[in-house]
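Lab notebook, bench 4. Still working through the backlog of constructs that have no structural model yet. Next entry is a single chain of 157 residues. Request: give me the structure tokens for it.
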Amino acid sequence: METYTENHGQKLEQLLSLLNDGKIGYRNAAQQTENPDLRTIFMRFAAQREELADQLRPFVTTYGGDPDNIGGGALGAIHRSWMNIKTAFTDNDDQAILETCKNGDLAALDAYDDALQGSILETPLKPILMNQRIDIHQAFLEIDKLYFGLFKTSPGI
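Model written out:
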């Protein structure tokens, strides 16, 4: 039977993996774009994800997880491969990159929503996870605004 600590450890490992995926994904996005303003934004969000992962890492250990899962998860690798394929065959690379970033942020938000349900709310983790979710949501909103802003400036859309 899974214990309270094991369950939290697994959820925290998943969040840590997603944060690392986000860091790698945003770095890849910065490399894909030719827009210096977007590159700066993507690098800021990559640094944010790294900072969030650093905040979470000690709690992963406390709850019996493995904090050395720094390479990102299998789903993140698939997501990054899709970003590379999609941008290679899309007329407006920045729109495709932003869309992929939005999708990654939505996956992270879903994982945080899942983790924040149930008994994890009874731990000292609650305010940390809530604040991290807010940070990711704000990043999503900024990326979403940029994404739809590009639609306004793109001919034929």
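Notes after review: Residues 4-67+75-153 form a domain with the Ferritin fold (CATH 1.20.1260.10). Helices lie at 4-32, 36-62, 74-88, 93-115, 125-153. Flag for follow-up if needed.
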